[in-house]
Amino acid sequence: MWALVFRTLKFRRTGFIATFLAMFLGAAIVMGCGGLLETGIRMAAPPQRLAAAPVVVTGQQKHGGTALSERNRIDPGLVDTVRSVPGVRQAVADVSFPATVLTGGKPVAGSSGSAGHNWDSAQLTPYALKQGAAPARNGEVVLDSGLASRSGASVGSNVELAAHGTTQKYVVTGIVDRKAGGSADPAVFFSGAEALRLAATDGKIDSIGVLAAPGTSAAALGKAVEAEVGDGVTVLTGERRGLAELPGTLASQQTVTILASIFGSWAILIVMFGVASTLGLSLQQRQHEMALLRAIGTTSRQVRRMILGETAVLSVLATALAVLPGRYLGELLYGQLTGHGVVSDAVAFREGWIPVAVGAVAAVAAALGATLFAGRRAARTKPVAALAESATQTRWFTVPRLLLALFFFANGILLSIVTATVMEDGPSLASTAGPASVLFAIGLALLAPGITKGIVTVLRLPVRLLTGLSGELALHNAATRNVRMAGAVAPIILLIGIATGTLYMQSTEDSVSARSYAKNVLADYVVDSSAGGFGPGFVEQVRGVPGVAGASELVSSDGKVEKNGGSDIALRGVSGADADKTLAVGPVAGSLDGLQGNTVALSDKQAQKFGVRVGDTLPVRLGDGTRTDPKVVALFPDNPKQQYLLLPSAVLAPHTTAGLPEQILVRAVADADRGALQEKLDRLAAGRPGAEVAGRATLTSQNNQIQQILVSANYTIVAMIVGYAAITVINALVAVTRQRNREFGLQRLTGATRGQVIGMLSVEGGLVAVIGTVLGTVAAATTIVPYSLVKNGTPMPEGSIGIYLAIIGGALALIFGATLVPSWRGMRTPPIETVTKPA
To answer: Where are the bilayer-spanning segments (predicted)?
Structure first.
């Protein structure tokens, strides 16, 4: 039997290429998505500055299962506790904060992202003292050699530094170099007391680097330290130590894992469908061969074994070859996420054996399932009936196919209903809306033969009137070979359904977000800081500029309301007196003037949701994990697309990693001279290192950039899946067309010209395009309609009609390219040779 398997593979190489490609590419896609999921779960971040410490103790970055968006600092008293643990040679406190080197009052080139640290932590870093000595007291610093070179500083010289909203001159006592292989941002080292003062963290530290005593393993030391420090802190070892240097990174873990899970599940479904449809089509084309085998005495069992053997060989080869491309594909997807700020590029991509196994199992299971499903009838049919059936191929309906189609329909419709009626507007909305079109498209594809026959019947009269003889021949073929045409229609449905649903879902999200943000922000200018933020008093200076109607600090963070089941929510820190002049938060109850101290303002709809009113307290968990119970002082009109709580910036900022407001929103007087006001603001900003004034357009652009963070990753994954569907389309159409070469030869021998045959194929391609477009659009509607209803209150999506036309145009190009090109090439062979050539 195996000899027959390998002989069949050898002499039917062309026919098996399509099946091999479907398995190979499908396995690679699933492996890539699996690698992305594993990366999100593991969150491996090799340490950079703390590389010398085998164990790192830091603040717990989760609370109640939710990742914190800001750094959770720890008590310095833990240093002594850790130092007393057996096996600890040394415990070193680490403090980090933004510190910018200035020349002429401006940040030096390359100092963006530079950070200040306490000198004791230098022994944990990839730095070694090159010149001079350590900073012994306040007013002294050590610079890394890169910053020293760019600022012209040397040992003994003075250097100007901006840190925590203030500017001060320091004496350079030393210069450090990065050790070979070390990696870290530009660094400035202060004395311990000065670092704590500039960090302004009420004496708290960021983390503790633990150095092991000789003979103590990192694993044993980590367990011993963990047992001693208790709750509220996290002990990191191995490749997760770098998370201590990346506050808020765990908040992106959920984004990565959800994204990978959603698209990974899509990929598995589509790959299984693609492999099954390609293999099923290949087996349909071999019906005559199977019939002949049965006619010469081959048993059903032998036919099934032969088909399974062929599939097994192809599956093993395809999945084995897909391992390396699958890893590259996963790295490409992850590069999109890191490149657009979804997750830090310090988090390493990881792909172990599990994603590889899942990808292999998905491809092999799809292939074997299709073999058992499609090959069973060929193996069981009586020889004479099989020969007759192979000539017409009109039977397609089976109870299992109907039940499977109903299963996909039911789940697709259920997801649509859940999206429209249960889901709230938020990041998880796409997780139910997106898969609906995929499931519904697969259900339509399974019933495509019957649906195709019905649509062809409806189109019969107009096609006859418009296309004449070519249309008559095409209609005859479509009626008698509806199974064959359905094989071409099915992948088109999937292609159009996924592409249309996903792209319009994204365009709707972008449009609604931009419109909502523009409505919410009243400011005409924004003053940004690239040097660690603005210190107290600067907002008053901005407010005092002639022509300024109002100015408010803006601090952005994320937290959680711990009432009525809890709810994650955005937090905004503002200057209460002018908050309603820069944001659309005009109070409907209470007064924003009272937004001072431990207070909060929220929308009227949120107040109803949380069961509070003016004068009540609202339990809130801030971004660094701190629990507070601010008093509600005002309610403002609800904007369902911009949900946040307002707190005083002076209260919220200390609980962020930056520690200071990094933006000031400015509203101009209605009749102000905008040019003159811009100049005044520019002059004021020039006196603040790293400050820059931008207009309202920049505010909108910044919001668009935030909204676009996931767009490129979404488009990359969707393009990958749509590309796979496109390859499935090409495989199906080319295979169907090549199978018909003898039919074309017979037509030409009976008097048809090459142009007439091409005309017939063009009409058939048009029918495939119309049917695929109609059904694909229906499938896409199961995603678009409920998503648009939730997002915009209307079933119609936002976005240009050009998106839809481009998708249809791409599908047409695939249909006619994969049909007419191989047909034209095949008809270059004399018809008599085509007819007499063995199948």
So the answer is: 258-283, 303-324, 353-374, 402-423, 438-463, 483-505, 715-736, 757-781, 801-821
3-class DSSP state for residue 445?
helix
Spatial separation of the C-alpha atoms in residues 490 and 478, rounded to whole Å: 14
What pLDDT is recorded for position 703?
57
User: What does the alpha-carbon distance between residue 344 and residue 245 come to, in Å, rounded to a whole number?
Assistant: 11
Burial of 786 (0-12, 13-18, 19+ CB in 10 A): buried
Question: Positive or negative CA dihedral for 385, 390, 395, 398?
Answer: positive
CB 186 within 8 A of CB 110: yes
DSSP symbols for 329-358: HHHHHHHHHHHTTSS-TTSPP---HHHHHH
CB contact set of 770 (below 8 Å; sequence gap of 6+): 455, 459
Read off the DSSP letter of residue 97: E
Instruction: Name which of 608, 605, 581 is nearest 593 in CA terms.
Output: 581
Please tell me whether residue 647 adopts helix, strand or coil conformation.
Answer: strand
Q: Tell me the three-class secondary structure of 772-836, residue by residue.
A: HHHHHHHHHHHHHHHHHHHHHCCCCCCCCHHHHHHHHHHHHHHHHHHHHHHHHHHCCCCHHHHHH
72 by Cβ neighbours in 10 Å (0-12 / 13-18 / 19+) ranks as: buried
Per-residue pLDDT tens for 364-397? 777 777 676 655 655 555 565 555 544 455 566 7
**Spans of the chain, pLDDT less than 50:** 389-391, 705
Give, for 749, the enclosing helix (H) or strand (E). helix 741-749
In angstroms, the CA 260 to CA 342 distance is: 13
d(CA 601, CA 632): 6
C-alpha span between 563 and 73 (Å, rounded): 25
What is d(CA 308, CA 328) in angstroms, rounded to the nearest whole number? Answer: 30
Tell me: the pLDDT tens digits for 492-542?
Answer: 888 888 889 888 988 888 888 778 777 888 888 999 888 888 888 889 999
CA pair distance 630, 619, nearest whole angstrom? 7
67: which 2 tokens?
């990742």
Question: Read out DSSP for 259-272?
Answer: HHHHHHHHHHHHHH
What's this model's pTM, rounded to 2 decimal places? 0.78
CB-based burial, 235-261: b 16+ in 10 Å, e otherwise: bbbebbbbbbbbbbbbbbbebbbbbbe
Q: Give pLDDT, residue 420.
A: 86
Report pLDDT for 390.
47
Neighbouring-strand partners of residue 241:
none
CA gap 168, 194 in Å, rounded = 12
pLDDT score, position 782? 93
Cα separation, 647 vs 653, whole angstroms? 10
pLDDT at 389: 47
Question: Positive or negative, the Cα torsion across 123, 126, 131, 135?
Answer: negative
Residues across the chain:
839
**How would you class 641 by CB atoms within 10 Å of its CB: exposed for 0-12, middle for 13-18, buried for 19 or more?**
middle
Using the 8-state DSSP alphabet, how is residue 205 labeled?
A: B
The Cβ-side half-sphere exposure at 814, using a 13 Å CA radius, reads: 29
Buried b (16+ CB within 10 A) or exposed e, 575-585: bbbbbbbbbeb
Residue 36 sits at φ, ψ, to 5 deg, of -65, -40
Which one-letter DSSP state was computed for residue 245?
G
Please give the Cα distance from 409 to 634 (Å, whole number): 48
* Residue 484 parent element (H or E): helix 482-520
Tracing tokens 């000539």 back to the chain, one arrives at: 391
Give the count of beta carbons closer than 10 Å to the beta carbon of residue 178. 18
Instruction: Please tell me the distance from the alpha carbon of residue 167 to that of residue 458, in angstroms, as a whole number.
Output: 78
| Measured distance CA(743)–CA(746) in Å, rounded | 5
DSSP-assigned states of every residue in 143-191: EEHHHHHHHT--TT-EEEEEETTEEEEEEEEEEEEEPTT-----EEEE-
